[in-house]
Write a structure and sequence with these properties.
heterodimer, A: alpha+beta, eight-stranded mixed beta sheet, globular, B: mainly alpha, Rossmann fold, three-stranded parallel beta sheet, 3 strands
């Protein structure tokens, strides 16, 4: 009896015209981040609920920069009488709600967590990342470059607190965590019928089918595929790509799982005070692998190969997972038209 | 002149540096100096001699701005035949003109600050590095890097002729962040894949002439070989 009751509690939906009320209630206690559109679509802090953009699919810019900004101050130093005084900039601690994250966004956070909160913990990332509530949403239709079905599909297994799926006048709501359970007690939700559940399933299947039709690539056997890619280190494909790649680094910057950064000092004229900052870096840039002795990846093809390997080979060796979510952002921004999906297809087949 | 625009920092800067010679802002000018900033590029014999004198009388010579570091707009005249170029003077050139070249064609240049106008931030960075004895390095990445850090949309995607991917960064993507495509005022960086970018632009539907014009606007001297290659293709 108890079990049945729990199942019925989990079948929930929320009316679309009550979403704003729900978000307004959340906004009172949390800082709200949601997609906005201003030329490019990205996640921004929401002051005014009308600025939220209900998009049919993922944003142009991922939510990486909320937790890991492009430029971030570490600390300020000052030469005092007792040596150097440091003033830390551990900022951005706030209770956040992210509304409108897609499956790829949620998976990318899991991968970023793996790098920055796992074996080595990054305090600046950790500060921003903790106390974050994630409300995900199913895509209405995929973008041209999407291929998340190669990494487990549009709906992630976990990593969200609530998951919304459009079923006409309502959103069907899946609860993914204890915090999610607390949120549904806010009173904006109503019980969903079996018909709603069927609608949701149909909806997801339809989009999923659409993504698969585009993807036409099977990467499910992680070990085998990464081995396959590893074997191709001397393949002619790298030379071809190295010739057309502009090495502008855009694919790295839009990638929701790329996390390299460069540390720089900004001193005053005499160096007695200044800031230490970190800035996103890109493995496609000439100076990325440059050391005092030599540059390990002088040639462009080596850099292109490195990026693919750093997504599909090295993380598999270290953590057993890919570091790609199939969001297709790199494909979309590449001025040279390099399509990661096609590259993978050539490598795996 | 951008020096005088360093309003916020100039007083602080003068604690460490004195201005000995500044033709546009000072009456009494002296030589020799520790650091000489040279703006513009010589276009006649007299100016070359002046440049050589400056080199002799300075410890560090900095090429300031587009014209000094890459040849800039004056070098555009090298795309024309001499006779055509003379037409702007109504047939009577004031002195015997020579082909405009970047400063390093004539003298050793220690540092270059690219851009038209050059970036104030980079100037501060260079002066700081010289004072504290650090090695100032040219930016070896494209405008795209800084444009992406500002999370802009791509202007190439919008179908504009943008030279961002092959142009040296450091300007903090001033133009592209405001919706204007990059004109390439900072010249190409060493690692730029220029030929690949030209192919991208041609595929986008721009004509060879349009691409050549865009390339030669600010850095004809740097793109000379590529333009010759493009003409033959």
């Amino acid at each position: 009896m108890k079990l049945v009751k729990m199942v019925t509690i989990m079948m929930l939906k929320i009316a679309k015209n009550r979403i704003n009320e729900f978000l307004a209630a959340l906004k009172e206690e949390y800082t709200l981040y949601a997609p906005t559109s201003n030329g490019v679509t990205k996640f921004e802090k929401i002051e005014d609920l009308t600025s939220i953009c209900f998009l049919p699919n993922r944003t142009d810019i991922s939510l990486k920069s909320i937790f890991f900004p492009p430029k971030q101050k570490f600390f300020r130093w000052k030469r005092g009488e007792m040596g150097y005084e440091l003033e830390d900039y551990l900022d951005g601690e706030e209770k956040k709600v992210i509304f409108g994250a897609r499956g790829c966004d949620i998976r990318s956070l899991k991968i970023l967590d793996m790098y920055m909160r796992g074996e080595f913990s990054d305090p600046y990332y950790e500060k921003r990342r903790k106390n974050t509530i994630i409300i995900g949403i199913s895509c209405d239709y995929p973008r041209e470059s999407c291929f998340c079905s190669a990494f487990g599909g549009m709906v992630p297994e976990d990593g969200y607190d609530l998951w919304f799926t459009d079923i006409g006048t309502h959103y069907f709501v899946d609860v993914g965590s204890d915090i999610g359970k607390e949120l549904i007690s806010l009173g904006f939700f109503q019980e969903a019928s079996p018909e709603d559940l069927r609608k949701k399933k149909r909806r997801i299947e339809k989009v999923q089918f659409e993504i698969e039709r585009r993807t036409r690539i099977d990467l499910c056997e992680v070990k085998r595929c990464s081995q396959e890619i590893k074997k191709k280190s001397q393949d002619e494909i790298w030379r071809e790509l190295g010739e057309i790649c502009l090495c502008c680094g855009k694919c790295n910057f839009v990638c929701p799982t790329c996390h390299c950064f460069d540390v720089r000092d900004i001193p005053s004229f005499d160096g007695s005070e200044g800031y230490r900052i970190r800035v996103w870096d890109s493995c496609h840039l000439y100076e990325y692998a440059k050391t005092s002795a030599e540059n390990f990846r002088k040639e462009k093809h080596a850099r292109v190969r490195y990026r693919v390997y750093d997504k599909f080979v090295f993380p598999v060796m270290r953590y057993g997972v890919y570091a790609c979510t199939g969001c297709g952002r790199c494909t979309e921004v590449c001025p040279a038209g390099i399509n990661l999906r096609e590259v993978l297809r050539r490598l795996v087949e | 002149m951008e020096f005088l625009n360093l309003e916020a920092q100039i007083l602080d800067l003068l604690k460490y540096l004195g201005i000995k010679n500044f033709r546009l802002a000072k009456e009494i000018n002296e030589m020799p100096v520790d650091i000489a900033f040279v703006e513009g590029t010589p276009t006649n014999r007299e100016e070359i001699i002046k440049l050589l004198k400056i080199r002799k009388g300075s410890h560090i010579l900095v090429a300031l701005g587009s014209c000094a570091s890459t040849g800039g707009v004056p070098a555009l005249v090298n795309t024309l035949r001499k006779r055509e170029a003379m037409d702007v003077y109504d047939g009577e050139p004031p002195e015997i003109p020579i082909d405009p070249k970047p400063l390093d064609y004539y003298v050793d240049v220690d540092y270059r600050l690219y851009g038209c106008p050059f970036s104030k931030d980079e100037l501060i960075e260079l002066i700081t590095d010289i004072i504290i004895g650090k090695n100032y390095r040219d930016k070896e990445y494209s405008v795209c890097v800084e444009c992406s850090l500002r999370e802009n949309g791509c202007l190439l995607e919008q179908g504009l002729l943008c030279l961002g991917p092959i142009t040296r960064g450091g300007c903090n993507a001033l133009c592209t962040a405001n919706g204007k495509p990059c004109l390439g005022c900072r010249g190409p960086y060493e690692d730029a894949n220029i030929k690949a970018h030209i192919k991208v632009l041609l595929d986008m539907g721009f004509s060879k002439e349009e691409v050549m014009e865009a390339l030669s606007l600010f850095s004809y001297e740097k793109f000379k070989e590529v333009i010759a290659w493009l003409k033959e293709e």
